[in-house]
Amino acid sequence: MTVRYTLLARALAGIALAALPGVAPLHAAPARSFEAPPPAVAPSRSLLLQGGQNFRDLGGYKTLDGRTVRWRTLFRSGAMNHLTAADFDYLAKLNLQTVVDLRSTEERAAAPVPWPEKAAPQILVRDYGQGAMGLENVDLAKLTGEGARARMAAIYPGILDNFNDQYRSLFDRLLAADAPLAFNCSAGKDRTGVAAALILTALNVPRETIIEDYLLSNQRFRPDLTTAAADPAMAIWRQVPPEVAKAFMGVDRSYIEGVFRVIDSHPGGAEGYLRDRLGLDHADLLALRKRYTTA
Asked: Which PANTHER family match (predicted)?
C-alpha cells in the first residue's frame, strides 16, 4: 500500500509543506486598541468556540524570569473554517486583530474561512503549493509506529527552513503590536506547533513548558473537523495499525525536540537563532517580552 504524497497530505491535513515567497494581506482590519485590563480570574486555555479546531490561548505560561504570558493576546489554532457566527462574535469581542494563516494555497481553497465583513481581522497568507516534505511514496503497510514517528521527527527540522519567511512575518506583526493575534495551519499541530515554540522561546518560557504546550495537540486536535475527514483518502487510515495513524495524526515529544536541536546547535543558541534566522535582536526580544508578558 504505497501512498503518494499528494494523497497522504490530504489525509494528514496538518503536515507542513514547502513554502514559496509572497505574503499577501486578504483583509485590512481597522486599527484597534491593543491594551486591555488584566482579567480578575485566569481564563481557560480553551476558548468558548463551537467550531474551534485545536484553538487555544498561549496566555498564563510563566517565563524564566518570573513573568507571565498575557492572556487573550496570542492564540494558536487549526483551520477556522468550522467557526460559527457565534464564534466570530466571540472572537470579535476578544478584539482579534490579526490572523497569520500558514496553510497552503490548496488548503485555503478547500477550507475557506467565511469571516464576517464587519469583524474580519487582517489575514496574512503566503501562496505556496503542496510540495514534498519527506513523505513521498510512503509505504504505510511497511511502517511500524516507531518508524512512522521517526519519519515525522525527521520532517520537523525542515519546517524551520521551509516556513522561515512566514515565521519572520509573524514576528513582524507581533513587533508591530498587531494583536491580539492568532496563527494557524490545518491541524494546528505541526507548522503551528513550531511557530508556538518559537514565540514562547522568544518570550523566555522554559523549554519543558513549551513542550507541554506542544503536546496538548494530542488532546485538542479533532481530525473530524478537517477537510480530509470527508476525503476518500481518509480510508487509508483504516488499513494501517493504529500506532501508525497516531504517529501521523498526533504529535510526539521527539518531533519538537528535533526542532530544538537545530535551534540549540546554532551559534549563540536560541538567542543566536532568533537573531540570525528571524531577525530578532536583543532589543526586539525585550520589546516582545514587555508587550506580551506581564509581571
From this structure: TYROSINE SPECIFIC PROTEIN PHOSPHATASES DOMAIN-CONTAINING PROTEIN, TYROSINE-PROTEIN PHOSPHATASE
